[in-house]
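Backbone description:
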Amino acid sequence: MLVDRALVRRIEGMFARDAAEYVHALRAIDPESAAAVAECAGGRLVYLEPGMFVNRAFGVGVDRPAAATDVDMIVEFFTARDCAPEIELCPYAHDSVRARATELGFGVAWFRNVYAVGLADVDVRRLEPLVECIPVDAANVDAWESFWVENSVEDANLVRRFARARHRKPGEHDSIATIGSEVVAVCSMTISAGLADFGGMTTRPEFRRRGVQAACLAHRLSVARRAGCDLAVTSADPGGESARNIERAGFRGLYTSVGLERVLDR
């Protein structure tokens, strides 16, 4: 797989579009929601709710050149919503984004590895026969949402609203993993334009290190291939257990994005 600008633009474009879909989903659930999205230098500025995961800028300056004024727009967009400005900076982004963010006092907050695998090449055999992955539908979506809430440390209401918005997004494929009759994990995937974006996953603590994540990865790879995707994409914190499982499943590390954050002016 050649890691060039065309591939990176394709991946970052999907990340940006997918994040923006949360806004539309939240508004569909709650017309009074303050969720908002704006386009900026080929990317998206996404605000959902205070404390929600995707309150940040995605893909800015990757698809096209950016200017200092684009970073100024990011600051204005988030501060107007009483939210600390945050940029998920791809290393292939136009350098004016980094330069202006430095001038405005942004600092490094986190790193995220981006991985991909070509679905024509990957082995999608079922890795753990005891784990069964069941698609989420109207009959079991409440159990899927509740599992996220019960196994998250974040505010329960925020987690539930985020999960509900995720399930409503176009191209979403969510699953429940079971061993016997017991739910042991949940996972998600969004399919768009031939790309499968593997989203969140959580496993019940007592079932970790038992091949559950590997089984869920294999299941989503199989679903993505049957859906006609040519590429699966995901991300993880560098050096973590999820990163190791992703690499064992055949994914290749493409690049590392940097989270830039600016303290909110009060």
